[in-house]
Design goal:
With 217 residues, the chain is of the alpha/beta class. 52% of the residues lie in helices and 16% in strands. It contains 10 helices and 6 strands. The chain has helices at 17-30, 38-44, 49-56, 62-83, 91-100, 113-124, 145-154, 166-175, 189-194, 204-216; strands at residues 2-7, 104-112, 130-134, 156-163, 179-182, 199-201. It has a 6-stranded parallel sheet, with helices on both faces. Helix 8 (166-175) links the parallel strand 4 (156-163) and strand 5. The longest helix is centred in the middle third of the chain and has 22 residues, at 62-83.
């Protein structure tokens, strides 16, 4: 079976916090609701688009506005995903190096699958073997079903799982994967340590070298 490196998407491969915040605030504005700061969005991200929108709304606004704001956010952010998103510097080079070393590279995200596939097509292309988002009938991370489905589709075995949040650390540990936390993402390094990271990487070069060593082990 082929070794597979599994990655989270937002905050790990994509520098997407500002895009998510802007799209979220545009969706709120369409319903006449107040905007949030980028730092507030940092705490909202990690459990899928619907949970993101729920966290954007106050308890008083939630019943009346959830569906409309969710639909507006999905449309606005989907349009952005189709145009292309911003990977962190060095991401594409890292993905190509891993594939040259014989690994398959794949994304498993709590972002809706349609948006995840748009990002794959517009931003990563052939640098990724597969990108899977939230699918109907498959629970979101940290449930192990999503990562296991990716490995089944690739007929592979996970050499490492890489993410930037406590959700990712719980996902990796719950699957029994070697779990790497990256410190440039959405959540603080200490939280990644506390929630199960086997290793932390501070730079893309450090991550690349670590993963290449994992493939040779």
């Amino acid at each position: 079976m082929k070794p597979v490196i599994l990655f989270d998407l937002d905050g790990t491969l994509l520098d997407s916090l500002s895009d998510i915040a802007q799209c979220g605030n545009r969706a709120l504005a369409l319903s006449g609701l107040p905007a949030h700061t980028q730092e507030e969005y940092r705490g909202y991200i990690g459990n899928g688009a619907r949970k993101l929108v729920e966290r954007m709304l106050s308890p008083a606004d939630l019943p009346q506005h959830l569906e409309q704001v969710y639909q507006d956010y999905m449309r606005i952010y989907g349009e952005l995903c189709a145009k292309g998103c911003k990977p962190f510097p060095g991401v594409l080079e890292m993905l190509r190096a891993l594939r040259q070393a014989g690994a398959a590279t794949a994304v498993i995200s709590n972002k809706p699958d349609v948006q995840t596939r748009l990002v794959w097509q517009s931003t990563f292309g052939e640098a990724l073997d597969l990108a899977q988002g939230q699918l109907e009938g498959i629970p979101t991370k940290p449930d192990p079903a999503g990562p296991r489905e990716v490995l089944r589709r690739l007929d592979g075995v996970c050499a490492a799982y890489v993410g930037d949040s406590e959700v990712d650390m719980a996902t990796g540990k719950g699957c029994g994967f070697y779990t790497v936390g990256v410190t440039w993402g959405m959540k603080p390094p200490e939280l990644l340590r506390q929630t199960g990271a086997d290793c932390l990487c501070d730079t893309m070069e450090e991550l690349t070298q670590l993963l290449l060593r994992r493939l040779k082990a």
